[in-house]
Amino acid sequence: MVTTVFDPAQSPQKRRARRYPTSARRSPPPHPAVGAAAATAAVAGLVAVVVLAVATETTRELRLPGGVATFVGSLTGLVGMYLALVMVVLAARVPAFERILGQDGMLRWHRRLAPWPIGLIVLHALVVTLGYAQAARTGVLHEIGTLVDSYPDMLGATAGLLLLVMIAVASFGPVRRRLRRETWWVMHLYIYLALALSFAHVIALGPAFVGHPLTRVVWSVLWALTAGAVLVNRFLVPVVRSARYRLRVVEVLPEGPGVVSVVLSGRNLDRLAVSGGQFFAWRFLTRGLWWQAHPYSISALPRPPYVRLTVKQIGDHTAAVARLQPGTRVAFEGPYGAVTSHALRSPTVALVAGGIGITALRSLLEDLPKSTDPVVVMRAASEEELVLHEEVAELVRHRKGTLHTVVGSRSRSRMTPAALGRLVPDIARRDVFVCGPPGLVEDAVAAARRLGVPPSCIHYEIYSW
Ligand SMILES: Cc1cc2nc3c(=O)[nH]c(=O)nc-3n(C[C@H](O)[C@H](O)[C@H](O)COP(=O)(O)OP(=O)(O)OC[C@H]3O[C@@H](n4cnc5c(N)ncnc54)[C@H](O)[C@@H]3O)c2cc1C
Q1: Which of 26, 37, 199, 359 is the Cys-Cys partner for 299 at CB 3.0 to 4.6 Å?
Q2: What confidence tens digit (pLDDT) does each residue in 19-28 have?
Q3: 246-336 CATH fold
Q4: What is the pLDDT of residue 16?
């Protein structure tokens, strides 16, 4: 049995705890300068793309029939493709960026930007067709046929455009909320296909590339590097790491109503750099589960050869996790997440967990310096749902902190500024870490802001997509 390995009540003097000390390797700290440099490079790239599109246009071409429409079409197409490249970089899970923004931050930027490349690319298709039709003095529908039939690589580009439109519709809030996350994820993969299909026609027909070998090379290298970043970070590194650490399920233990902890063991886990508060995308290699990876936080610092996650059943995957058999092999992607001790700005902290959000905060608490005088707030619908409560209480006691539990329905025990202020009166001087379902996180973050916590001292992870 390995159950007690993660129990902080095991005093360091006890033999078992000494045999399995917490892993000493932590994820490297974020370097905000890298983020600032990348953001500057992205803006400089955008300016360069606009300048390139304008510089390769002549006044004579603009005066020709359809000239203005064709120019606007080239400009929107080029800028749209450039922004699509930025989107792919954001989705490539480049570790240096992920450490700064976390998955939440990357997703927020990804969603904020997404309508632009898709909108510009659709506008490009419409306006270029119009421009070509004006130049050929023909109808738009006839021109669509001519473009697809006789221009190089236009069939692929048209298929790519249709895929992009399909993904845009699927990503639209009300539609996305009706889709299963897995369906939405598979559809999202088609973005890579759509962009690959569109690439050739940009090079073959774009005025910025035809007769300009240097811009062709720069553009191709940029896309090759981006595709490489996706392949390396989303595929190669996870495969190599999973093979290296060879994780397997050791035991699945009940923790509360509908909640289980899964203890995994693996080789060389002392070399895996992971910080408290981080999560992995886990892929359980068993029938029915191998094809989907779901994010679950580590609910304790790894104690090589063991690592633990704690999962609340809310759907198919979480229910299947509770039925995992010992010996099941596990692949993973990560670690991800910026809710770690690297985010600390103040000497003291407040941790606010909603329900199963305690998993990340439990491992973070273990990782925080002892001097941080933690005030921990655990919220749940009932006493039984305060999972890992005893472990958290022990960790808080050891750090001479304070633990509050808030039990009751969400509507009756909301994290309003008044409620949070009562629980943590000196919150404005603390770093605030919040984790859990969207409603709780939104309430607690808004309350912390109202109570005077600077935005740079509020760190959160939402357990949703
Ligand atoms: C960073 C992060 C860390 C998390 N850590 C934990 C944890 O430690 N313990 C835990 O029990 N849960 C955790 N979750 C939530 C967990 O990933 C989802 O509950 C789980 O994926 C639901 O899958 P399902 O098939 O059982 O449910 P579904 O029926 O598919 O989904 C139920 C709800 O879960 C959310 N969800 C589904 N799939 C995903 C996904 N792949 N990514 C994000 N949200 C999803 C959606 O909001 C959906 O409405 C975490 C989520 C995130 C984003």
Answers
A1: 359
A2: 788 888 999 9
A3: Elongation Factor Tu (Ef-tu); domain 3 (2.40.30)
A4: 57
**176 in helix, strand or coil?**
helix
Determine the atom of ligand 1 nearest the C-alpha atom of 462.
53
Q: Identify the residue whose C-alpha is closest to ligand 1 atom 42.
A: 465
What number does CATH give the domain 341-462?
Answer: 3.40.50.80
Whether the predicted pLDDT of 304 surpasses 70: yes
Question: What tokens were used for 375?
Answer: 């005030």
**Residue to mutate, 259, 317, 323, 460, ligand 1, most ligand atoms under 8 Å from C-beta:** 317
Distance 256 CA to ligand 1 centre (A): 18
Residue 109: exposed, middle, or buried by beta-carbon count in 10 A (0-12, 13-18, 19+)? middle
Can you tell me the distance from the alpha carbon of 262 to that of 271, in angstroms, rounded to the nearest whole number? 21
| Ligand 1 atom with least separation from CA of 297 | 8
Q: Is the pLDDT of residue 159 over 90?
A: yes
Task: Please report, for the chain, the start and end positions of each structural domain, with discontinuous segments joined by +.
Answer: 32-230, 246-336, 341-462
Q: Residues 24-51: pLDDT tens digits?
A: 899 999 999 999 999 999 999 999 999 9
Q: Residue whose CA is closest, atom 40 of ligand 1?
A: 294
3-state SS of the chain: helix, strand, coil percent to 5? 55, 15, 25
Question: Rounded to two decimals, what is the model's pTM?
Answer: 0.90
